[in-house]
Structures are given as C-alpha cells and as structure tokens.
Amino acid sequence: MRLRLRITYNSFRHAKASRKIGILILYLMLAGFGLFILLLSRLFLGLMQSPEIARYSGIDMKSVLTSIPALILSAVFFGTLLTSFGVLLQALYLSGDMDFLIAAPIPIRAVFIVKLLQAVLPNFALISLFGIPIFFGLGISNNYALVYYPLVVLVMIVLALAAAGLASLLVMLVVRILPPRRAAELLAFSGGMFGLVCSQLGNFTNSFGQDINISGTRLAGIVLLANTRWLPLNWAGQGLIALGESHWLSGTLLVGATLVFTIVTFWFALITAERWYYSGWAGMQAITRKKKPYAPRSVNATTNHIGLRMARLVPSPVLGIVQKDFLTLRRDLRSLSQLISPIILGVLYTLTMFRSAGEAPIESIEASSWFAQSFDTALAYSSVGMSLFVGWMILSRLAGMGFSQEGRNYWLLKAAPVHARHLLAAKFLVAYLPALGLGLVFLIVISVLDRLSALEFLYSLITLSMCQAGMAGILLSFGVAGANLTWDDPRRMNAGVLGCFGQIVAMLYLPVAFGLFIVPLGLASFFEFPIIYGYLFGLLIGSGATAICAYVPLWLVLKKVELLGE
Amino acid sequence: MPESLIETRNLIKRYGDKVAVNNISFDVYGGEVFGFLGPNGAGKTTTIKMIVGLLQPTSGTVKVAGYDVQTQPVFAKSASGYVPDTPNLYAKLTGQELLRFVGDLYSLDRGQAARRIDELLRKFDLFAAANDTVDSYSHGMQQKASLAAALMHDPKVLVLDEPTVGLDPKSARLIKDILRQLADRGAAVMLSTHILEIAERMCDRIGIINKGELVAVGTMAELRVLDKTGQASLEDIFLGLTGGAEETEIAEILK
Predict the structure, then answer these.
(1) Which residues pair with B83 in a beta bridge?
(2) A299: which chain B residues are within 8 Å (Cβ-Cβ)?
(3) CA distance A428 to A399
(4) Are B149 and A332 within 8 A, CB to CB?
C-alpha cells in the first residue's frame, strides 16, 4: 500500500506544473460536484416530503424515500461486484506482479487485501461521489441523528469490500473454466457490446419518444422494488434510517446484522480466495477444450474451388497476409467487437433513416422543379451515404490500424521476402474487402426497401466501391505513417496523433468524394441535360479523384513501409 | 574455399551519438556454424538484425547468399531464416496456420508447404499441438515454433539470436542437432549465445564483439593463440577480450 501511495505521490511530485494545477482543479471540481449533488438531493428530497406533492402525484412518498438507502446500497454492492471482476482478473492473473509479491516475504493475506483495495477504491470513489451526497442530503432533509452519517460511510465500505471479496471468488471460478486472457477478452467483448447496444437502443427509443413514456409512478415503482423485506441490502438501508430517526434498538440490530453479515462474507471470500490461489486450484482449468486432431491438409481436394483459383492470381505473400489477418481478427474478441459495432450502428441508423425518410415534407417545399428533382436524386443515393458511413467505421479500424495491429509480431513480415507494395496491397485488401462487403449488404437491403432502379443501384455500387477505395488508401497511409508496433495493451494500438489526423482527413474526404459522384446528377437536371450525361460525368470525375486518393497516399508511404519497425 | 554466405563489410550502426556497431567486417561460410559472442549490450542483436534486414545500417554493406540486403532485400531475405531472441508470434494463429502463413510469405507451393509443415511439426514435437493457438504454447514450444517457421523454406542462411534460452535439455539438444545437420548440408548457421559451452562445442568459428567492435574472429584453435598459454578455455578468452577478467578477479576476492 505504501508503495502504491509512494508511486501516486511521486507521479504528482514529478509532474509538470500545468499537470499539477490540472489535477488540483479536477479534485476541486469533483468536490464541487459532490457538494452540488448534496444540495440538490437535500432540496429534492425535502420537496418530496411535502404533502402537496404526494397528493398531486398519488405516490406514497414516505415509502419512496425509505427505499432510497437500499437503492444506493444495492448500487454500491452490485456496482462494485461487477466492476471489480475485470480489475481483479487483471490484478490477480494478468498483471504479472503476483509471482513477485507472493515470492516476497510478505503475508499472502496482505497481498490479497492490497489487490482487493486496488480493485475497489477507484470504483468505490466514483459510486461514493453520487451515493454519499444523496445519503447525506436525505439525512439533512430529515434531521437525522449524527450517528447516521459515519455509519453510512462505514456500511458503504464494508458492502464494497464484501462485493470485492465475492468478485475475487467469481474470478477464480471463471479462471478455472477459461484461460485468464480469454476471460478478459470475453469480458471486454461482452461489456463493449452491452454498452453499445444499450446506448444505441437508448438513442433509438428516444427517436420513437412518443411511444415510450416513463411516468413518475413507474419510476417510483422501480425505486420501491429495492424496498423488499427479504433483500439483505434493504436491512442495512432500513437500519440506517432507523438509527437516523433515533429508533436505537431496531436500527442497531439491522445495521449490526448487516455489518456482521458483510464482514463474515468478506472474511470467508478472502480466506477461500487465498487458498484457491495459493493451492493452484484456481489456476488450473478443469474444463479443457476438446483438441482437434491435426490432420495434414489435402491440397488437391481444394484446388478446384473457384475462389481459390481466383486467389491464385494474387501473389502468395499478399494472400497469406490477408488470410492471416482475417483469422486473427476473427479470433481476437477485442478486434471483433470493434468490427461488430459498425454493423449494430448501421442497422440502428438505417432503421432511424427509414423512419424519418417517410416524414420528409418534400411536397411542402416550394421550390423550383430542378431543386425538387435534385433533392429526389440525393434522397435516392442516401443509401450510399449510409453504406459509406458503415464502411468508414470499419475502415477506421482495419485500415487505420492495419499495420499497428501487427505489433511486436511485425518482425515476421519484415524478415520475410515481401515487397513493400505487396504488404500495402495486402493491408489494403484486408481493410477494403470487409468494408465493401458490408457496405454492399447495406446497399442491397436499402435499395430493395427504397425500390431503386437497376441504373441507380449500379451507380450506387460504383460510387460506394470507389469512395471506399479512396478512404482505405487515405486511412491506410496515415496508419503507416503513425504505426505503433510496440504496444502491449491493444487499446493503445492507435496512440499517435497521425491516426486522429487520418480520421479527420477521411471525414473531410468522404462528403467531397460522394459529392463528386452525386453533384453532376443535380447539375444535369439543372441544365436540363439528359441524366446519362450526369452519370458519365460523375463517373469520370468521381472515379478519377477517388482512384487518385486510393493510390497516391499509398505511393507516398511506400518508402516508409520499408523502414517500419526499425 | 567454401562460399561466403554472410558477408559484412565495414558495418556501422549509430543511434544518434551512440555507436551500437562500429566498423564490423566478417564472413560466415557455407557448411559452418558461426558463434557470435559478446557481453550484454555489445551489439550482437543489432548486427544480427542488420544481417536479416530488420535494421538498415548507417553505413557499410551486408550480403546474404551474394545478395545485398539493402539493394536486393527480397532475394537476400528469400535465402535467410531468422529466429529472434524473443519469439513474438501471432498469438491467435495455430501452429499449423503460422507455418502455412510463413510458407505463403516465402511463396512456397501449397502442396510443398503442407508436406514441410507436417515434417517440421513432427520434428519439433509440435504435432499434437498443431491445432492449438500459439498463445497456449509454453515458451519452449514458441521457441520451437519460431525455429520451425525459420526452417520452412529450407534457408541457405540461418541466423539465430539466443536460440537455446528457455529450452529444456531435450529441445536444446534437438536444436543443436538440427543446426549441425543444416550446416552439414551446406548452409551457413550464425548464432549468438551467452552459453560459452554451446559455442565451444557447436561452433566451427567464433566471433567476439565488445562495445560494438569485433575483437576476435576464428576457430577455437585460432582464438587460443590469443592467449599466452595457448590452453585457455573459451571462457578465459572471452573474459580476457571483453574486460570481464577483472570482474572475475573481484568475484574471487569476494569469495
């Protein structure tokens, strides 16, 4: 613990003055935020006690107020349990310092307690930032006895410790089934997906706002759920209120029972986790994956496959790198979640687009016929815009980090007889093919729903493929220029400024490139030329510009590829 | 006279003001195992990385199998295989997929590659783990997978940086035998090691580098001439040339 405090102190002491000021301002802001929550909750909870509000809302406010402590304590317990799981998995199995600490002449219990505290403290601080001011606000608005305030903090601490203890047991059970690294990947994947789906569903349902109405009564009903008698977390809440209201006997019994229960839970979890870890039980996988027996691949059996025959046209190193990248991306759940996110976003935004498309009051716009026609044209090609948007998100990951994802394995490519142009071509294909494939799926679906003509679909397809090619070229070249091959944590893969700059350039490129294909169609309408001229002109300038964007940036970084990894 | 398969001439590598490798010139011939020794930070890995094309020299030339590594990198790399000191391999590929990928990088015919993969997996005792991903391999298995990858294309030149680190005696013996066989078939094998016993027993010639400069090159007999007694072990010669002798004396006094 001293070491951790020393590291924190030294980091602060040796930081630049601007950073020190920044940290102080941050702490002041947090304190201000806590005070704001305290004042707000005091005001709000005071208001809730007024008989007028109860009469107007028809809600039993007394019950709602007595449910609040149980609700906050449940948040503390379950929040700590869930968030500690990932931190403890990292601290106990992936940080690499456990062997050193256990080999050192330190009691193993001390090591475990430190690890648990490390897991609990940051999340506990965050939850307390909201929880303690609300608890205190409740106390002030109800004139609770003084003993209520320190007991609130004590109960929150023991609950958080018990939750962390149980989380450590849970980690050890999971690690018995899955390798720690795989468990961490799964956690990151499921956490990321859950967060994305929740946030997007929130946005999505907001866009259907008129259908969903969370009333005050329903909200109160949810709060009252926490006030269930058989929930142990409710005993603590009720005990705190009882002590606050000077009902000493019932309060002491309830809070005492909670403290004993949580301390016993924490102690039991600590001792069991220690034993499991020390005996190696929790490091030994009980269930192992059934091994597939190795069978040498028959080459002739697959030679007639048309895809393989076409693939033969591609140089062998290019094909090898493409296959390798697709395999590793598919198997690494962290990469997979980055690739699935655009699909989820794409589906949700497409649905939103369709919903709002029906509301477009084009008839109400009093405009000249060419404007209306141009607007129709732009609307017809909005499907390309959506497909490009989805493609952009995929390309950001696959092209922007195409080289960085090689990390410390890059020596294998660099020591191999692979031309820099083949390496670039392979990385281009790895990024471009999935983006094009997914964009194409979106394009087909939207075109069918939008009833696009064959000509419009074909033009959309060319627009999509060319715009994405240009974007892949731009993002890949920035990815080469800012490649980071020394990362240990995949989240730091794209730590450079150039990667961000590449995103900005791609964002600027996208509407311009799309416009080069679409604007000539509007111009043809304006000058009353046959639309075919618009298509031909759009193809000529759009394809030309995007092809240049696909090729020139890559040509510029060709020399850089040869020096990469030195 | 056997053919020189690794040829370094006036090789210099600077990192800013620091000279990591200073004017090194030596040859490694076909059919020999060349040991490259030196204390930590002497410039062994930097030299090796310049030979296999992972680093560009500040000046000087490196030729592998007659091809200049700077001007004809693809030809030079086609002829060489490299085993790094830390086997960083694609964690999410299986052993078999890793070797197939390397086969593709060296443009091997798929049928030929499949046979070679089968042969190497058996030879390195990785057959049972062929369908397991590399992240499930032990350090020794990763080291063997790394060597198997370097041997996929049957290179004329094999360069190994600390190949026996972390290997059990059986695997270390296997690697030593394979390197000897490779040299006997006419390939040039260059390896860096800290284990002087391995160098003394395995290597036909030895180069000693210290503070970026090559201080001695030759067979054991030629190196012994550098010592007054002519009976010195490689350890004595090494310590004498790299300034470690004084430290040995201090260690003796401390005893």
Answers:
(1) B160
(2) 110-111, 114
(3) 7
(4) no
